[in-house]
């Protein structure tokens, strides 16, 4: 079965992926940070056993204490688990075959349901997450307050327990230095934008996550609709900026696109930062029609992003690699998998 990041998605020239996350806890257990080992094991085994019984073959359960550090980090880089669960000795993830759906057990909360999809697909993600939420709720007793909603480890998640977000490719807005302005505007609507790789002082790859922050005072579907409305505005602004870049100096835009493709196609050693910057320029060249693949198909850029991460490469190699070896393997992977252009 193909992984979620190997499929094409709507508005894929700007929207890399969509994500829904629901935070839940059980009434019969203390919060994860207060659980003793016996209760932690009991909780994980109960949830894992329930999924294995009712969804045989659809999900697999990966226990963190039986998982190498490299594999845990690879799962994190592919966005299947959180950084917190990587460090957990008693947590687990129940993972779908395409890795788009994951139920994190005994991480920051007892349950975190996460659904990710390529492109702009929040409604699809929400339906899937809601179905899983209903299943768990039917089999376990959630900690819920009639006034405040779902009880969560962090007060910022109390209420719906919902986080919805998009990962966006924004080279046009980044070059126009409009990300800070957008961040200020989003804050007024209870949204946040942050770099996916690096930080505000040194981000790379021009990938940004726009996500909801409010969990109280709004219905889930209302939160999602507001997010989609605003992200559609960002998409339009980004496309306008990309066109402005090309109209201002088309020869420079073409030169950057072809150079980025040439380095990606023939380099023998690439750091993650350099590879992500080059992929961003390559993606921009594809979206502007400067670069066209030989078979005319779209480029599944999300697969490249996932597959060149350090732990993913180490895991695929089956051994621990040095930084230099990882950079060599990254360049080799891109040489072998980047499509031909015409």
Describe it for me?
This protein is 45% helix and 16% strand. With 342 residues, the protein is of the alpha+beta class. The protein has two domains: 238 residues, Creatine Kinase, Chain A, domain 2; 88 residues, no CATH class. The chain is globular.
Please sum up the structure shown:
This protein is α+β, with helices and mostly antiparallel strands and 342 residues long.
Secondary structure: elements and pairs:
Layout: E1 15-24, H1 37-54, E2 59-63, H2 69-77, H3 83-86, E3 92-96, E4 101-105, E5 111-118, H4 122-139, E6 144-145, E7 149-150, E8 162-169, H5 171-175, H6 179-187, E9 191-195, E10 207-212, H7 220-248, H8 250-266, H9 272-287, H10 301-307, H11 310-317, H12 323-337
Antiparallel strand pairs: 1-5, 1-8, 2-3, 3-4, 4-5, 6-7, 8-10, 9-10
The portion of residues forming beta strands comes to 15-25%
The chain-level mean pLDDT equals 93
The CATH topology of the largest domain corresponds to: Creatine Kinase, Chain A, domain 2
Shape: globular
The parts where pLDDT drops under 50 for at least 5 residues are none
Q: Helicity level, as a percent range?
A: 40-55%
Number of strands: 10
Distance between the termini: 30 Å
User: What structural category characterises the helix and strand content?
Assistant: alpha+beta
Order of helices and strands: EHEHHEEEHEEEHHEEHHHHHH
- Give the biggest beta sheet: 8 strands, antiparallel
Strand order of the largest sheet: 2-3-4-5-1-8-10-9
Evaluate the radius of gyration.
21 Å
| Number of separate helices | 12
What top-tier CATH class of the largest domain fits best? Alpha Beta
CATH superfamily of the largest domain: Glutamine synthetase/guanido kinase, catalytic domain
């Amino acid at each position: 079965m193909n992984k979620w990041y190997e499929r094409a998605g709507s508005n894929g020239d700007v929207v890399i992926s969509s994500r829904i996350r629901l935070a839940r806890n059980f009434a019969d257990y203390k919060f994860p940070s207060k659980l003793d080992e016996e209760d932690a094991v009991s909780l994980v085994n109960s949830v894992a056993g329930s999924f294995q019984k009712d969804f045989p073959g659809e999900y697999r359960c990966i226990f963190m204490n039986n998982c190498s550090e490299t594999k845990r980090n690879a799962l994190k880089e592919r966005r299947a688990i959180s950084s917190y669960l990587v460090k957990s000795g008693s947590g687990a993830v129940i993972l779908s075959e395409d890795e788009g759906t994951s139920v994190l057990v005994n991480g920051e909360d007892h349950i975190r349901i996460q659904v990710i999809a390529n492109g702009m697909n929040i409604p699809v993600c929400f339906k899937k997450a809601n179905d899983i939420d209903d299943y768990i709720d039917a089999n376990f007793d959630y900690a819920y307050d009639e006034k405040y909603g779902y009880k969560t480890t962090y007060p910022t998640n109390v209420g719906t327990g919902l986080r919805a977000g998009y990962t966006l490719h924004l080279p046009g807005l980044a070059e126009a230095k409009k990300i800070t302005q957008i961040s200020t505007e989003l804050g007024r609507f209870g949204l946040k934008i942050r770099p996916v790789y690096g930080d505000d002082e040194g981000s790379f790859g021009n990938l940004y996550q726009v996500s909801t922050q409010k969990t109280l005072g709004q219905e889930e579907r209302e939160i999602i609709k507001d997010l989609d409305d605003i992200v559609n505005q960002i998409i339009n602004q980004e496309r306008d900026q990309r066109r402005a870049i090309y109209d201002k100096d088309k020869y420079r835009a073409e030169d950057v696109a072809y150079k980025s493709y040439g380095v990606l196609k023939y380099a023998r050693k690439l750091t993650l930062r350099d590879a992500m910057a080059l992929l961003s320029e390559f993606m921009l060249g594809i979206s502007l029609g400067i670069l066209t693949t030989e078979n005319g198909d779209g480029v599944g850029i999300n697969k490249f992003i996932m597959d060149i991460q350090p732990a993913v490469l180490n895991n695929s190699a089956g051994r621990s690699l040095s930084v230099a070896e990882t950079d060599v393997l990254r360049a080799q992977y891109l040489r072998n998998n980047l499509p031909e252009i015409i």
